[in-house]
Amino acid sequence: MSTYAIGDLQGCHDEFVALLEQLDFDPRHDHLWLAGDLVNRGPASLACLREVMALGEAATTVLGNHDLHLLAVARGGARENRKDTLSAILAAPDRERLLDWLQSRPLLMRRRAGEQDDTVMTHAGLLPHWSVEQAAGLAAEAESRLESERAGAFLEQMYGNAPACWRDDLDGIDRLRVIVNVFTRMRFIDAAGCLDFAAKEGLESGPAGFAPWFQFPRDDDPWLLFGHWAALQGETPARRVRAEALDTGCVWGNRLTALDLESGKRISVPSRQR
């Protein structure tokens, strides 16, 4: 039995199938952890969504910002962006079943192998100011809202860059927005844990006073798996925590990558995107 963590699919279905073949993946024995952003930008978002859902308990995925964008367009009144490739999902005969499944996915996954040996996956990373226990509790708050009767209203108000800093006394939509932004949009932060939303490229693009979240120390030592940041190309330079970048930019013409959680080996296939 093997467990593989895979970076952002973003509609790259052919590469996903090729990677599973490369892994000799057997859903009867093996398991996938997917770092979110199953959909958008690539050519086959509908096929990716159906493929992962069909794997059942053999695959677990966290929500990414593009997954939440799909839900916001379908159920929160948001508009599609010019570069979106979501129309096939929105027109699919099984769209409601797919959206229900996606909306029930977690923001954080955790595997415990002892008190001090946590493996944690989120789409964008983990704020160094949050313990794993706190982060799991905050993720559950947002997940509960997504599965409630107020999910539509939450999806309508989810977007926004403010507040940019976490405070324990935040409540209402401000609290939920920061939680979602940390788990799905975070790249650069400052020493106080405030997020910058403008810089999206490599390490050199960060504003003064900000650094990648994985360059700040933590009080605990979980193994952190994340996607989202394709410009890193799977690297986490000068990291001060155990962090593994999984998004290697398949949708941008690079590679789709899996990490074997038992051996630490990386396996990848080339992109077929232009």
UniProtKB/TrEMBL annotation:
Gene3D superfamilies assigned to the protein according to its UniProt record, in alphabetical order: 3.60.21.10
InterPro entries reported for this sequence: ApaH (IPR004617), Calcineurin-like_PHP (IPR004843), Metallo-depent_PP-like (IPR029052)
UniProt-listed Enzyme Commission number(s): 3.6.1.41
Gene Ontology MF terms: bis(5'-nucleosyl)-tetraphosphatase (symmetrical) activity
The protein's enzyme class: hydrolase
Catalytic activity annotation: P(1),P(4)-bis(5'-adenosyl) tetraphosphate + H2O = 2 ADP + 2 H(+)
Annotated protein name in UniProt: bis(5'-nucleosyl)-tetraphosphatase (symmetrical)
Protein purpose: Hydrolyzes diadenosine 5',5'''-P1,P4-tetraphosphate to yield ADP.
Family under the similarity heading: Belongs to the Ap4A hydrolase family.
Domain Calcineurin-like phosphoesterase: 2-82
UniProt entry tagged with the keyword Hydrolase: yes
Origin: domain of life: Bacteria
Swiss-Prot/TrEMBL keywords: Hydrolase
